[in-house]
Design brief:
The chain is α/β, with parallel strands linked by helices. It contains eleven helices and 19 strands.
Length: 437
């Protein structure tokens, strides 16, 4: 299903002047328990490690900029929230040396990514977490198809960076057989050293988990590495082509509340006030989302660009809505999946949806709602019930190793039971991962 929202970014690039405030957030890397390796006041170069994965200390996470460590922000029980860095006026880079990927082995590629602190951007199935070098994948899947509402156009991002993208793909192919998933109207057929698969369908055809399910499903005991954020391939390609860590990514500023939706080049961890300044009417109540409307996280202007974020979306909050007669109105300007509103009579149109859930949590209705928006060979409703009841054997039989929370994002949107399906799936995966450890 495609949700047509107002405020898609126009394919023009706006120039930003950074305020020099950056932060790397461990929560952007699912499954990583961070151990900070810098102290406040330390000076780091772009590419130096800020924290490592406590369980696998060889997995480092690189600073996007050179500068001074301003703060290691902590929350409850001293959980590391982020490591903040004030950027230098003149940037310095750690030099890891240019390398010809064609002459490298898979082990050498992995070691280079570990050394430079960008290996942690690669995820895995099962469990949909940041992977580790101790497991050998049967395959690597890269999705270059972004089809979430108002998604950043990767064709526009990769333009002019095709060499880096090819280098990144070649590097991955040294580790295991690599599959590249793309859409029908894209120009990815010329890339080499990968198997290209074209997906023709609506959201969530771009989900890497959906692509894995259709090409080479994950069985118990198997591991595949996944890159659902194709910009990560550019990070890898730049490392080998330049010898430097360059975490620049193209971000779509979008949403119905944005005055002039457009694109901007930003570094991972850059403070969002750089992008959001004067971009929307501050007098209105809005929801700023770090990511897209289905899988993104609420943030503020003082937040930081996520490690895998390709959109910053601004939509109405909806807490100031005052509707006469409430739900009983025909609602000609609001989207409905099941034609509950009369807006379906007007054909294809774009909607300015707000962040309201419009209802409270209630009992699961076995209506087949999930199956209509979950193009995978699993029974979504039964899997959710098995996770809620904690029946691990049934979860395994129903295919939990094949799914990630984002696969249930659309199901959560259409769910008449108003359940937080992505949270439920994440908790189920975490429990299973702990049980199998």
């Amino acid at each position: 299903m495609d949700i047509a929202l107002q405020g898609k970014a126009e394919k023009k690039l706006i120039q930003l002047k950074s305020n020099g405030k950056f932060a790397l957030v461990p929560d952007d890397f699912e499954g990583v328990v961070p151990k900070v390796v810098v102290k406040e006041g330390d000076h780091v170069k772009a590419g130096d490690a800020l924290f490592v994965n406590k369980q696998y200390p060889e997995i480092r996470f690189a600073s996007p900029v050179s500068g001074t460590v301003r703060e290691v922000a902590r929350g409850e029980r001293r959980k590391v929230l982020c490591v903040k860095v004030d950027a230098d006026a003149q940037q310095e880079f750690t030099d890891y040396g240019k390398r010809d990927v064609n002459s490298l082995s898979g082990e050498q590629v992995i070691n280079a990514l570990l050394e430079a602190g960008i290996f942690g951007y690669i995820n895995q199935l099962p469990y949909a977490v940041s992977t580790n070098p101790s497991v050998t994948p049967k395959a690597i899947f890269v999705s270059a198809l972004r089809d979430k509402p108002l998604a950043c156009d990767f064709d526009f991002e990769v333009k002019g960076q095709e060499t880096d993208f090819q280098t990144g793909l070649t590097a991955l192919s040294k580790i295991a057989k690599t599959y590249l998933g793309c859409g029908v109207h894209t120009s990815f057929e010329n890339y080499q050293n990968v198997e290209i698969n074209v997906f023709d369908g609506k959201c969530p055809a771009g989900n890497v988990g959906v692509q894995v399910n259709h090409i080479d499903p994950v069985n118990k005991g198997e591991v595949v590495w996944t890159i659902g954020d194709p910009t990560v391939v550019l990070f890898i390609g730049r490392l080998f082509n330049t010898g430097r860590v360059n975490l620049t990514r193209r971000v779509a500023l979008c949403g119905s509340e944005v005055t002039s939706p457009a694109y901007a080049d930003m570094l991972v961890g850059e403070e969002l006030s750089t992008l959001l300044s004067n971009s929307y009417d501050a007098s209105k109540s809005v929801r700023i989302i770090n990511g897209n409307v289905l899988t993104g996280k609420p943030t503020t202007k003082d937040g930081f660009l996520g490690a895998h974020t390709s959109e910053i979306t601004v939509i109405p909050e909806g807490d100031d809505a005052d509707e006469f007669a409430g739900w009983i109105m025909p609602r000609f300007s609001q989207f409905s999946v099941n034609r509950s509103y009369f807006s379906w009579l007007f054909g294809k149109k774009q909607y300015a949806l707000d962040a309201r859930v419009k209802g409270g949590e209630r009992h699961i209705i076995m209506s087949g709602e999930y199956d209509r928006v979950l193009p995978m060979d699993i029974y979504g409703e039964y899997l959710i019930k098995a996770i809620i009841t904690g029946d691990i054997d049934r979860q395994e039989a129903l295919g939990i190793y094949e799914v990630s929370p984002e696969d249930f994002a659309l199901a959560e949107f259409v769910d008449s039971s108003k359940l937080e399906l992505q949270r439920i799936v994440r908790e189920g995966l975490n429990i299973l991962r702990k049980e199998n450890a």
